Amino acid sequence: MSTDASDPSLPARPAVDAELVRKTARLARLQIEDADIPKLVDHLEKILDLVGELGISDDTTQSGDSISATTDSLDVEAWRNDEPAAENQPGGPRDSQQIGGNCPDWRDGSFVTPRVVGGE
Question: Are 21 and 40 in contact (CB under 8 A)?
């Protein structure tokens, strides 16, 4: 599987090899077996190819009707104001102590998670 080298505006996609799979697994703190690496290389290649196809798709027709590309039709003026939802609206205010009672570690109104970057 390869990238489309005919379009110089597209950044070159990194080559997926065993070392990239090991590095990605280490960063994601995943344990993988050496026997699984060739299969993971293939899966990552396919994922990157699909993402590449999504990013360069110029097809803006739907059922024979022409439609504008999503990025061209965004009307920023039509976006809603960024205001908090009211108590009676979906996503509205919630009791933080009730929410915190459902998690393993809750301090000062925030979820506490294990450190991921910078050591144990």
Answer: yes
